[in-house]
Amino acid sequence: MENLVIIREKINQMAELALSMLKNTFDGFMKHDSDILTNVLKDEERLNGMERNLNSSLVAISEGKGADDKKNIMLLSNIVEDLEEIGDYIKDMIERIEIKIEEKLLFSDDAVDDYKHLYNAVETELADVQKALGMNDKNFARRVLCGTEDHVDNLVQKYRETHTQRLMKGICLPRACNMFLNLLDFTGQISHHAKAIAKNISELK
User: pTM for the full model?
Assistant: First the structure.
């Protein structure tokens, strides 16, 4: 039976994969490259498999454990679930980006700049979460939690409003507008899960 040290290392590998998926999805978005996105979808299947295996291991190892160990197991299970949900949102993002590519939908330069800003904020959060797991250093988790709690939410709301204004001015088409707003929302949800992971890491003993 695997011990908690091995399981934590595997959870770090899951976090590394989720971070790589996010980066590659952004790369595919910027390059209009469907092949990159196809490979990310394969990684999403791997991520789902890791979630199933890790949860099975955590259930198996929980038997006979003391209160502290059981709390850690519960926190680790929460982290695994959040990482899997990040993968789900990345898959949703890819579906929208593929539509954008297939239908040759264009975002304005301002829209792309807005999304870059949001993406960079969320990638930094997920990277800090991965460092906290990989280096066993809660300071990285605290850095995610010490940031302005609603910073990403405020960015999403701000960029939704400015993009709607661009739509009203005829700068972008309604179909492209919907794709952009979806990307904002899904990326914002990834931030929510990164913060949840950081909170669980901070409570680990």
Answer: 0.94
Among candidate residues 94, 98, 102, the one with its CA nearest the CA of residue 186 = 94
> In a structure prediction context, what are the per-residue pLDDT tens digits for the chain, which is 205 residues long?
578 889 999 999 999 999 999 999 999 999 999 999 999 999 999 999 999 999 999 999 988 788 888 999 999 999 999 999 999 999 999 999 999 999 999 899 999 999 999 999 999 999 999 999 999 999 999 999 986 667 999 999 999 999 989 888 888 888 889 999 999 999 999 999 999 999 999 999 8
Domain boundaries, the chain: 4-203
So what CATH class is 4-203? mainly alpha
- Residue-by-residue DSSP string for 92-135: HHHHHHHHHHHTT----HHHHHHHHHHHHHHHHHHHHHHHHHHT
Token pair 């204004």 is found at: 165
Q: Quick check: helix, strand or coil at residue 203?
A: helix
